[in-house]
Amino acid sequence: MSSEINKKYIVHPGGQIQGELRVPGDKSISHRSIMLGSLAEGTTKVTGFLEGEDALATLATFRAMGVDIIGPDKGKVTIHGVGMHGLKAPEKEFYVGNSGTSIRLLSGLLSGQQFDCTLSGDKSLSGRPMKRVTDPLALMGAKIDTTKGKPPLKIHGGSSLKGIDYLLPMASAQVKSCLLLAGMYAEGKTSVTEPAPTRDHTERMLSGMGYAVDVEGSTISITGGGKLTATNIDVPADISSATFFMVAAAIAPGSDITLKHVGINPTRIGVINILKLMGADISLTNEAETGGEPVADIRVRYAPLKGIQIPEDQVPLAIDEFPALFIAAACAEGQTVLTGAEELRVKESDRIQVMADGLQTLGIDAKPTEDGIVIHGGIIGSGEVDSHSDHRIAMSFAIAALQAGGSIQINDCANVATSFPGFVEVASEVGLNIEEIDG
């Protein structure tokens, strides 16, 4: 289990980011390609699949339910779909490690099956709230036992699901996707209304596989009883992984990096919009569409950043990118204020508190608030910070060393492999002075 292996990063100060790079495939799309490809009729071929621990956990669950999946081999996966009702009962519980996407989306999909199953995860995942999915699923007729609202989740098969109209209390692509996947197995129509736009990879892939999805304003609807038809899926590079190098180039004088074939889904480009508002030099070229998902090459050159009030309408569009954006804020002139981001407190870690603690350790004035943070740009020092097993925290503090006065030691980095296998090697190739040590 990755979270129980102790890895540390030592990142030495200085340097600049140069070159061309294609980061690993998009995690969200990789998860969904396995889930929907398994339920489709026919053979789905996936390229660019992220071979990180989270997506591999999803792949393992479908293999355990009898789906014939070949690969992954250098990002290529072949899925022989079993149709909407072809999954078989697993022989043991599903362990999904650190993957919140796996457990939340699977809870919806598995609520519509005829067999019982249990979903569990590592220590970090076992502390994450699940009532946000189990409560609306219960309204649909699902029977799920939790441990005081947290994993493990025991899902009872054979429930007769009924469609509901559900107003999401907070913007969450995972909850929306969970309910849409359950809605495929429900009688009648399931509608989910969002308070703000969130990533729409589920809707795009469902449509791409021939399952009708109706979008009217902020309400997404699906009617049960349809079918999925296999297709080929080219997974773009993950904008969340690209973000670390975008911020790295934006803060380190002399930097100039081009990130190739990155997904620029309009529900995911908050990081680009926010960095541009801070004064970053970002340009997009080679814009195209692959499998219903827009992609582009992103070039970032160093430019001085200034602190801003982050627009709240950008928060759901950049929710996973904020740890890295906090590093940009620490290197910017003036004050950056984030509000409306309470969702960050229930990610792999409490990302507001953990980032504030680390920034303060490094000499930056960072004050956490209930729903955000206030960061005054300053001079990053050296020190030892704890990532709390959170992959995005670990990678964010790694890039902070580009502008640090001394070395930064980051503890508890094993989970970086959940989203960005090979991060240390890739970062070293483009100019980060980073080493990984055990113990």
Largest sheet: 4 strands, mixed
Helix coverage percent: 25-40%
Structural category: alpha+beta
Number of alpha- plus pi-helical segments:
12
Round the Cα radius of gyration to an integer and report it.
21 Å
Please count the beta strands (DSSP E, at least 2 residues each): 23
What proportion of the residues form beta strands (DSSP E)?
Answer: 25-35%
Average residue-wise pLDDT: 94
- Inertia-based shape: globular
Low-confidence stretches: none
Major β-sheet strand ordering = 21-22-1-23
Q: Give the termini distance in whole angstroms.
A: 15 Å
Short overview:
28% of the residues lie in helices and 27% in strands. It contains twelve helices and 23 strands.
What features would you describe in this structure?
- With 439 residues, the chain is α+β, with helices and mostly antiparallel strands.
- It is 28% helix and 27% strand.
- Strands 21-22-1-23 form a four-stranded mixed beta sheet. The chain has a four-stranded mixed beta sheet with strand order 2-15-17-16.
- A hairpin with a 2-residue loop joins strand 19 and strand 20.
- It is globular and about 60 Å long.
